[in-house]
Amino acid sequence: MAKKNLQAYFGQQTPGWILHFGLSGGLDTQLAVGDCLLAEKILTTHNSINTDPRWNIKITEIGQKNKINFKTGIQFSSDMVLARPAQKKLALEKYHAIGVDMESYWVAEAAQKKQIPYYFLRSVFDTATEDLSPLANANTITPEGQLTPAGLATSLIKNPKLILSLPQYQKKAAIANKKLAQLIFDFLDTL
C-alpha cells in the first residue's frame, strides 16, 4: 500500500529533497527512548540504499547542542512488526542495524528512482529490550506498522488489562516526538 501511494505521489510531485522522519524501534541495546537515529543506509532482507550524507553533520551538531543522544548507522526496514526482544536481537545480529521500521526503504527507493536526495531521521519509541507483543498480538498494528483505532478498541474489549499499558506507550511517544520535533525545527531554521 505504501509503495503504491509513493508511486502515485512521485508521479505528480518532484520535491527537491526528502527529510523522512518519525518513530523507530531500537535494535541497539545502547539506545533509549527519544534517542535519535541517523541512517547512512536503509536495508531490507533483499536490498539496501544509501542515504544522502550531506545533512548528517549539521543535524548531529544541532542534536549535540540540544543534548539529544544520537546514533548513526544502518536502519532495517522490516516486512513485519518486530515486537519481541528476541526478534530485535536477531535483526541486530543479522543486519547490524541500529533501528527498525517498516517503511523507510520504500520511501528511499522511490526517492532514488527519481534522483531526489533522501535524508533519514528517527527517534526511538521502543527499545531493543522492550516487548511490544501485547500491542502487536492484539491486532492493533497493521502490516504497515500503523495503529488501528478499531483494532485497539476490539482488543481492549477482549483484554481490558491492555489499557493499563497505554499510558506508558503514550508517554514514550511524547518523549520521542518532542526530541524529534525540537531537532527538526532547529534544523529547518538553518536552511
Q: Could you explain the architecture of this structure?
A:
The protein starts with a helix and ends with a helix. The protein is α/β, with parallel strands linked by helices and 191 residues long. The radius of gyration is 17 Å and the shape is globular. The chain has a single domain, classed as Nucleoside phosphorylase domain (Rossmann fold). The mean pLDDT is 87. Helices cover 42% and strands 22% of the residues.
Key features of this structure:
191 residues, alpha/beta, Rossmann fold, five-stranded mixed barrel, 7 helices
Entry summary:
The protein has 191 residues and is of the alpha/beta class.
By CATH, the superfamily comes out as Nucleoside phosphorylase domain
Structural class: alpha/beta
CATH architecture label name: 3-Layer(aba) Sandwich
Reported by name, the CATH topology is Rossmann fold
Strand order of the largest sheet: 1-5-4-2-6
**Helix and strand string, N-terminal first?**
HEEEHEHEHEHHH
